[in-house]
Amino acid sequence: MTGLALFFGAFFMLYALGMSLESEQGFEAAAQMLTESFFARLIAWGLVSALLYHFFAGIKHLVMDFGHCEELESGKMAAKVTLVVSAVSILLAGVWIW
């Protein structure tokens, strides 16, 4: 799910990048859109949230690829740690964006 969110959210970010590269006025409009628009901030926070969860889940899978946390109990603990670390990171990102 996070991979799909990042894929489709990239279109929004590419639109903002394209607008900012067109001209100085386009850059100012893109910067204003990303700083003042509630909807744009919500999309940015959603993208950062998906990226953070995807990152921490990927680290968990890399650890599992090396042979750690493959048992049921340790796998459940690793999943819980991933969720907690992701939730804290997402909340901190929300504070930073808003």
List the helices and strands and how they pair.
Layout: H1 2-22, H2 24-36, H3 38-65, H4 72-97
Family: Belongs to the cytochrome b560 family.
Main location: membrane
Subcellular location: Membrane
Structure in a nutshell:
The protein is an all-alpha fold. The protein has helices at about 1-20, 25-35, 40-65, 70-95.
The proportion of residues forming helix, as a percent range, comes to over 70%
Oligomer: single chain
Distance separating the two termini: 24 Å
Note the main sheet: none
How would you describe this structure to a colleague?
There is one protein chain. This protein is mostly helical and 98 residues long. The protein has a single domain (2-97), classed as 3 helical TM bundles of succinate and fumarate reductases. Helix content is 90%, strand content 0%. Helix 1 packs across helix 3 (38-65) and helix 3 packs antiparallel against helix 4 (72-97). It is elongated. The mean pLDDT is 92.
